[in-house]
Amino acid sequence: MSEATTVIDAIKWRPGMYLGVKSLTALYQFLNGYQMACGLHQIEDDRLGLRIPPDFHDWVAYRTHFQESTTGWCNMIVTTTKSEEDAFDRFFELLEEHAHRVPRVVAEIIGPNSCTNRDCLVPPPERVHLVKFTEDPGFFALHGNKDWSDSFYPYLSWMHGLYGGEWVIHDEASYSEMLRENQEWERKLEERLGIRGEDPAP
């Protein structure tokens, strides 16, 4: 392994040497062990290149068409591929995509509120960008504020914590598709539970 190559790159090309088998689950367990050791020894740097981006769970949910990411990136990839070997390759494809993704702002919310009174403990962000990276269903809400975590949402009505504000649409076609997806989800929810959702935006 050359000096410029990270351990994660070496594992990609020679998984048998590091993991004993070409398997995403084996890689996931390897990475979990590394992260646990870093935590126990209070190691902050990532000189080996083994830290997975914290929003990678959301990225994988977005690209694999899961509605949320709580099952974890490993399970989502394994579930949507034919074998552990295919899942291993797909992981690196998604990691590469994540590193080079380019956001497309579909809409933004200017001056939203985070509560209905003036005693909010966490002030709202000045604006929120609703972003897509591909044509997959769903979008990301980017807040530009350290007090608000950027999040993936499969539907507009799943957004929470912010209210009101001025909505500015930048990509009419994509926004219309997001509305259509939301309406379809609400229709199916109404059929299952007998409830009707409200429009998520003006």
Describe this structure in words.
The chain is an alpha+beta fold. The chain is 42% helix and 12% strand. It is built from seven helices and five strands, in the order ααααααβββββα. The protein has a five-stranded antiparallel sheet with strand order 4-3-2-1-5, with helices on both faces. A hairpin with a 6-residue loop joins strand 2 and strand 3 (139-142). Helix 5 packs across helix 6.
Layout of secondary structure:
Elements: H1 7-13, H2 15-19, H3 24-40, H4 56-64, H5 73-79, H6 84-100, E1 104-110, E2 127-132, E3 139-142, E4 151-153, E5 166-169, H7 172-193
Antiparallel strand pairs: 1-2, 1-5, 2-3, 3-4
The global form is globular
Rg calculated over all Cα atoms: 20 Å
Number of helices: 7
Strand order of the largest sheet: 4-3-2-1-5
